Structures are given as structure tokens and as C-alpha cells.
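Could you show me some protein's one-letter sequence and the numbers that encode its backbone in two labelled lines?

___
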Amino acid sequence: SGFDFYVSSASSVLFCGGWAPERTDRLRWLQVDLRERVEVTAVATQGRFGSPDWVTSYMLLYSDTGRAWKQFRQEDNIGTFSGNINSDGIVHHKLSHSIRTRFLRFLPVDWSPGGWMGLRVEVYGCAYKSDVADFNGRSSLLYRFNQKSTSTVKDVISLRFKSQRGDGVLVHGEGQRGDYITLELHKGRLALHINLDDVKMHPSSGHVSVFLGSLLDDQHWHSVLIERFNKQINFTVDRLTKHVRTGGLDDSLEVDYELSFGGIPLPGKPGTFLRKNFHGCMENLYYNGVNIIDLAKRRKPQIYSGNVTFTCSEPQLVSATFLSSSSSFLSLPLDAATETLSVTFQFRTWNREGMLLSAWLRRESERLLLLLVHGQLRLTHHRSALQSSDIVIGQALSDGQWHTVSISVGGFQVSLSVDDEPPSTMQLKDIAQPERSVLIGGCPSVLTNQGCRNPTLAYQGCMRSVIINNQPINFNLVQQGLLGNYSKLQFDICGIRDRCLPNYCEHDGECSQSWNTLFCDCSGTGYTGATCHNSIFEPSCEAHRLTGSASGFFSIDPDGSGPLKSTVVYCNITDDKVWTVVNHNSTEMVRVQGSSLQKPHVMKFNYSTSLEQLRTLVGRSEQCQQEVVYLCRKSRLFNTWDGTPLSWWLDRAGERRTYWGGFLPGVQQCACSLDENCIDMNHFCNCDADHSSWENDTGVLSYKEHLPVTEILVGDTNRSGSEAIYRVGSLHCYGDRFLWNAASFYQESSYLHFPMLQAELSIDISLYFKTTAPSGVFLENLGAKDFIRVELSAPSVVTFTFDVGNGPVVLMVKSHVPLNDKQWHYVRAERNVKEASLQVDQLPLRFLEAPSEGHTHLQLNSQLFIGGTASRQRGFLGCIRSLSINGMTLDLEERAKMTPGVSSGCPGHCSSQNSLCHNRGKCIEKSSGYVCDCTHSAYGGPNCKKEVSMSFESGSSVTYTFQEPFSVMRNHSRQSSAIFAQSSNSRESIAFSFLTTQTPAMLLTVNTYHQQYMAIILAHNGSLQIWYRLNREKEPDIFTPTSLNLANGELHRVQIHREGRDMYIDKDTNLKYSLSTDKELITIRSLTLGKVTGRAGVDEEVLQAGSRGFIGCLSSVQFNHLAPLKAAILNRGSSLVSVLGNLVESNCGELADKSSSRSLSDTGSRGKKLTNAAQSDSAVIGGLIAAVVLITLCAVAVMTRFLYRHRNERTQQMASVKEKDHQPRPELRYRAELDLHGAMRDSRKEYFI
């Protein structure tokens, strides 16, 4: 229903057709007095009748008193309402949440372009009644129970409050055994503390603390609801809810005697409290259905009321908001007769910089300037342009809390204090004589020629309680123009809002803010971007292979920007397959004796990554397997009478599984049954034959939906002579079924459809495409008004378009070459609450910042269309592959199988998942085949597999100078522009082989424009050292992965991969080190191989190695995307590559691959010794002879082992009949095989460091 109301507006005119302000009026608002607090649910506006006057947009403010106002914000924190487009139409707005208020104020923002402001308004709602209690900071209400204590498993507490200060206890109850519940304000946030356990028996297990809300000390009403059932707690503050569970064992809350509201009184000492009391008003206070305030008003005996009144006293504190960081100011006059100056005020802001106060002294020859600098107060006395003195006090004053500042100027002294800190003083040479006025918040533009300039930014925030020379400033007089002057101020309101509530920073990013925007600090999260949305890690080992990485430990993030964190796995990268290996806590052989079904042996396996991560990793892989070695003696897997399992294992979902090999779940069989070679064909497992000899039921589990094994149970080893030995191997997966998941669209009207995007706040879309068509839509999803679309809009233009309610946003990337060239092109589009971006191949990133005030949620309501649109127009013709949205790759191939006009996969040589080009080589389609582009590879040849090596003589070096300041970390997305954030994007991938006999030696060094460097050297003893100096003010990080002498004339391989603080040193050593910082190498200057001349800021040991340089052979050097050795060979004469000394192209790496000898000291590159480059055919012949001899010896060893094994098996068969007591131990036999495999692996020609 509508309300009768009174209308008021200073200097406004009420015409017969509606309200309109005077054109000269600075206070252009329409205020409505509803005569009492009511619940408002909707408003409506109309223009002024019979005129060209209407309001096109407006803000809605509300207040209980008509002095302290608050702006109503709709969903997405939208602070404005759309108004009228003519004078007759009525525009209704149903409020997203009702407000209880007496006064409303309609504040026009924009109006009729051909007329003036004109308004007719209607307000809708219903009557509102409440029970109110006022707490003065020394009062409380005590609700006493009928019995000594009460024990509850369910509690509901609801109330509304408004507070005059940021700290104070609202609700408290406790019991003698240690239970308690406390609801309190702390720095404007609500904290709920609950403990349900006996503190003597369980000191901290049952405690939980939850924080919610922000800026709750704004003198406006806030609602609170606490619901507890057993351990489950729902905590709601102003429509924001957190769900938590308490720990511990107990479910009930035991409170003794009473529950207090407004404070925690000391027993037996009325009026004495343990913590700060609540100062403000509460209404509609209910505890488990009991109206506490109503009982207190009726003076019921179970309520003790201490200094509580039942009308809400309204504070006299009135705020003003400085709206602009460039032009806001408040000028206040001073008494001409004054000889001293004292200024006191309170302020709250998020900005770390701003001008708070400026005052002239001694006839404008001197000036006092109070600034907020990096969250601290700095008071500067400027005696002249070159002479000044400072006082700096306070810390973290830009935290959004109210802070009190006092400045006193008198005689020869100036003092400054903030909050409760003692004042700091500064001595003056002359007596201070304040001039005509004081400027607060900024400088007027008319005074810039007189030396008053905003040194950094004008103040942007709230201010109240301004007192000058003991006279409080009446803001009402200021806004009426009767006192001082001002610009860009809003009176009677503090417009601060917390942009970090809710926290839009993803993946545990830390949110900070200024007055107009938020910032996300992604340090240490493993993610990057404006909202920490994008993972810095590759999604799989297969993706690492495509970047040119060799085998080693890597961090992967299988769900990309999804909710799961990254995990470290071992990537075994071979020529034909890439294996992902995940280890667990027990990979050794385990012997089991004395177990039964009643008392089984149980082993749980804890993997190096979570089950959720494993589920995603396995689902992304083409195939997974896990070996279970199972050896038995008189120990069955199944009961031979009825088939009941006696041993089993649990899958990743905790389900019991009884098959022991293969990929056929539900079949109680072992590997021997699948291979049809069980020792007793009456049984499906060798162990079920129940022989006294050792039998083997080792199998490989390969049904990936059940992997990995999480637990194993062995239950039949309690008979005489019964025994089992088992080992569950690591999880091995290969392939990435999404990396090459593709679909071909060959009809313009065809498309694939998927469920609607779940992308309200953030979305990232990445895909590869190739086409010959001039245009086509890759992706589209529509809502009622919102939409999102990515398309090829022209042969050389990719467009990303979306609308979240603020109007269409269009980002375009134009290529200098056509994109419809039948080659694969990469597209990545991202949108979040901070910005939108579009990346195409390696072209410059396009991005656009989101408005600070506007809609943030993308509202969609239809299916997602791939390769077309709902209208079946502008469809895409060509191939799309690896389409990923928010870290989840869509299965295009599966959906294409059931869609006409679309086929699975994509024709063409380079569409194959099998990598045709190795070591970072890029496959390029040709009309009759393909070619490999090895530009970014350290290798050459047709398939980028040929080693590129060079021999270095004394004094030789190769230096690659970067063309422009270059960040070593080029992620898929632009770095955050946050002024408070430190990006942890640092990543280096380094690989090379070397052969030398010289120490010390400089292998590789990288230096930056910021005096940072990293270096890889051989120390005096020949050990490898890796140096990182990322912080000039700290000692360098030094790592020595091996103490062996590597200057031994043999070829060694070095592989280093750094991600943030973590550094991995390749596959054979499996070493991981931690740096002291995760800083990146900022703006790299150059990379040098070999001799380095003196350089400032480099440590002495590195200088010595650099001066000695390198004598020997370097092969296949890769630094991130750069191949400096290859660049030196192919680009001699280039300004980017500098070669000093005599360098000879070599093939030492290739010779090492062909030779089986560890020592290459006698074999040079192309027959040249590295020390003097002399020809030596005998060395080559000797090397070949050594290779032939070693191959012959290996063949003899293999034949000998085969004959010995055959003889041993015959011996075992005989011994099983005649000498059962002399069976060889199976675990020893297994270990012997491992040792043999280890010996074969160690015979390789390269050492991996």
C-alpha cells in the first residue's frame, strides 16, 4: 500500500504538477517524511505533469532521523535507479530487500536533456513495529534460566542492531565445563565464537570462530541470525551467510545461570565488564523464540535490566563524504584575532594517499600540510620551497576504520596525535601565526596559482566531528552556504563501502581496496590475474611436453582456473608417451602374517595429492594404471568353497573391489585368469590354489574410474605357513584426452550445444581454431538481456563481446595477417569483476577495465552454443579444439558424434595428438604435408630433434641481448594492475648439456636492469652451483645439487625449472629446493654463455667463474622460449647476438647419444679435441671400438641372465617337490630384479643433474 507523507527540500519548489528544484539550488533532492518507521518495499517515479521535466536516474537514501543517511544499493551494489524517459510514464522499482525507515530522499543524478528535474513519487510498503532497547556502553540485559544451567542441541538467536562504535559484546553465555557462545563487534565486523566441548578434556577441539560483515559501526540497522543444530552453524549478517561446523565430540551447548546481552558482567560486580560493552540500539531480540526486550519492558523476573532504556537515542555525529580524489575540498574560515590553531577531526577511508589539511602561517610565507602517505600521517612544516621538517605517526590508517586526528599549533611548537597514541611535537623557529582559513581534503582550483596544490591526491573518504579552535563545525551551515566553501562533498552521509565483501579474489587471494576499486594479491596462491583467476601452471604433463620440457617433477593444475589447487607430479616424458606419476606413502614391499577376516591387515594409501585432484587428473588422462604386486604362500584371495573375498582393495570412492588385474570391474579374477595361464585352471587366481610354494598374482589395474587404490585389506594369512607379500605401485597415467579434443563444422547452420555457462562473476575461455571461412561464431550464450560471444568477425579480426547489464562491451584483436589461413590459432578471452581481456596468438593483449560502479553478475538463461548461434546464422566453418571454459575442457568429440553437420576430430597432419615436432617445435600445415618450425626450440632438423652444439675456447662467449625490457614470465593473462599486489609470476625453465675439464667455469648467467641475476657455474671442486640474487638487499640463494666433480670430460645434462619459490632440478636427482623469495627476474637485460666481464652487484665467486669463462662443449641450450646457442649460429651479425672468441659448431651431444662410453674426454666434436682443437682420428676409432666391445658384453650378459633364469626356474620346480624349506624369499628376488634394472639404467651415456 502507499503512504501519506510530508515533502521537504531546501530551496525547492512544489508546483501543482510535481516537484522541481530551483536551478540555483545546490541541494537538489526531494525528501519524504513517512512520520514513523515503516517497512518500504517499492518506489515509483513520474515526471512533472505537463512539462519537459523528469529525472532519468536517481539515488535513493534513507534515514531514521533525517540527518544520518545511507544509500540504498540494489543487487551488484548498484547505487542508482533508472528513472523516467518522459513526464507521464510511471517507473516502478521493487526493492531487492525491504528497508525499515522513516525518511526517504530522492537524489537526482541525471534528468531530461531538453528540460529540467521534475518528480512525482510513490512509496509502497507496510507498517513496522519493533521492541527497541538502548545500550549506553555501561548497560546490559541478563536473561536468567529457570534452572541452574541449560543444555541445548538447537539454538536460534536473531536481532537487529545499530552501533555507535566498532567494538562491543552483543551476546554472551558460558558454562562451568567450558562451553560458551559470544557474539561481538570487533573493528566493525561481527565475530561469533562457540565452544561445545569440555575444555579440561578437550582444550581446543570444539572451538570455532566465524567473522562476517564489515563497516557495521555506521549507525544504521543491521540484521543478525544465528542458527545452530548440533555442530552445524548458519551465521547470517545482512543477507550474507556462512556455514560452519564445530569440532570436538559434543553436540550440545551448556550455559549456566544466564545469557547476557550488551556485555559480559563480572559475577557479583554489577556494572563491571570483562570486555567492551555494546554502545547502540538493539531491536527484535529473540533467543529460542523468547522476546527478550519485551520481557524486559514488562519487567519480568527472569530479566535483569541494567541501565537499559527502551527508546533508541540518536547520535549527533554527522558525516560528510569527500567524493573526488582530484577536486574535493572544504574551506573553513578562522577568527582573524586567533594566534593559535587547534584542529580535531575523525576520518575513515580506504585510500593510502590523500591531503587531509592545509593551513598558512605567517602571512602565507609558511605552510602546514597534513598528508596521508602509505597509510601514515605526515605533517610537514614548509618554511620555504627548500626548507621543511616532518612528523610521521600512525600505521595502517587506511583500513576503513574511524581514526581521530588532533593538530595543535601555538607559540614555537606544533603537535600531532592520532587515536590513543601520545602526541608527537615539532619545534618552530618563529611564533606560529595562523592565517585566514583552513583547507580540509584538498585545494580549490582557483588557488593553484597561489601555491596550494594537491601534492598527491585530494582526500577521498568520510570525515566527521570537525572542531576548529574548540568550535564544532556545523555541516548544515556549510551545505547551506552560510559557512565556508566546498566542492564535491556529500553531507549527512558516509559513502564508504567494503568492496572486499564478498571477496571477489579467487583461490585464497588477499583482497585490498581503495575508495573506487579492489585489488587482489595473488602471492603464493599459484594463480595470477586481476582476481587470481588464472593458474600459472600447465594442466598436464602432456602440456609440459609441448612446451619443450624434459622429464622431471612439475606442478600441474588439471582443472586450470577451477577450484582445485595445483599439485606436484613426476612427468616421465618419452618419445611415444608422456606418463604422469603420482606417488603415495607406501611403495615398499609389505609382508603380512597372522591376519584373518576378523582381524585383517589394513593399509591406507595417502597420495601426494588430494582425491579431488586425482579424480580430475585421472578423468583428463587417456589411460591410467596401477600395478599391484601380490605374492602368496598358503594365502587365498577368495574362499574356494563359496567365492567369498578374503582380501580386497578400495577404490577412490571407498568402494570395495575384488578384481586384481585388467580393466573389467566386477569380475572376481586375477591377471592369470585374463591371460589364461593360472597354475590351477579350477581357480581364477594363482593364490587360490593354496599352494605352500610362493605364487604370484601380480596384476595391473587399468579401469581408471576406480583408480587409484586407496586401501588394501589382506585377510587369509593366519594359518600355519601362511604368508603374503604385496606392494601397490604409484599411479601412472598417460595422455591428455582434452588437449587434442576437436570437432569439425562443415555446415553453417550446425552447432554443438552444452549446458548454460556458470560464469556469473568470472569466466575464461580458451580454444584453438583453424578455418578458411572469413567469419563465424566460436561460442555464444544468451540471457534475457545479458550475453557473451566470441567470434571471428572478419578474416583477420577476433571479437569478444559481452553485456552484464552495463551495455555491450566489445574487445577486438586485429592481426596483420589473415587468420583464415588453415593454420591453428589460439584465442583466450577472460572477463571478471575487474576487467576483460582478449588474447590471439602472440598478438598484443587487449583489455578493458570494468566500471567501478555497475553490474557485475553475468545473468544467462539458455544453452551454450559452440560453432554457431541460436538463430542458426553466422555459423563457424572449420575446426575447433581444446575448448576450455573456467578450467573445464568441453568434450567436443563426444557431442559431435550425435550432431549432424559436425564430425569428431579435425583433418590435417598437425591435428594429430602424436607430436610430429619435438622440443617446442611448432607444426605448420602444408597443402601436401607439414613442416616443423623450430624457431623457439634449442634443437634443429626436420622434426626439431637434432642437437645444436658449440665448442668454446678460452675467452669465448655468446651473449644474447634482449631487444626491450622483457618480463621473464609471460603468462596467458596480463599481470594484475593492483597497486598493492605483488605478483608471483616468476618462472624459468632452463636446459642444456655440457662437457668440460675446466674449473671454475661459467656455464650460463642472466642479468636484469634491476641488478638481479641468476648464474649456473662450476665451482673450484667441479661441483655444480646455481646462484639466484633476486633481492639486492639480501644474500643470494646458492644451491649445490651434487658435490661430484662434473668437470670430468663427460657429457652432463642440466634441467632446472622454477615456479615461484620452488625450484626443481631434473629427473634423476628428483631434487626440490626453496628460494627465499618468489620474485621474478624483472626486465631481463642479457643472457651469456661462457666468459663474462666484470659486472657490478655480482658476488665474488660468480665473478671468478665469469672471468675464467668456459672451455668445452655446450649443447641444446634452452632458456624459456629462447635458444641462445642456436640464435648465435643462425643470426651472426645480428645486433641481438654478440659472439666473442673462437666458437666452432660441434656435435658433442649427438656423439654422446651414439656412444655407450661414459667418458668423452678422448672424443672431441667432429674429431676435434676441445682443448686445442687438434685432429685425432685415433680417438674416434678408439671410441667406436669401445662402443662395439661394450655392446658385445651387454649381449653376453643378457644371454647369461636368460640361461640362469631358465635354470633357476627348473631348480625351483624341483625344489618345490623335494625341498620346500629352501624356497628363495620372493621379496629378495623382486629386489634383485630392481637392482638389475637400476644397473641397466645407470649405464646410460648422459648424466642428468
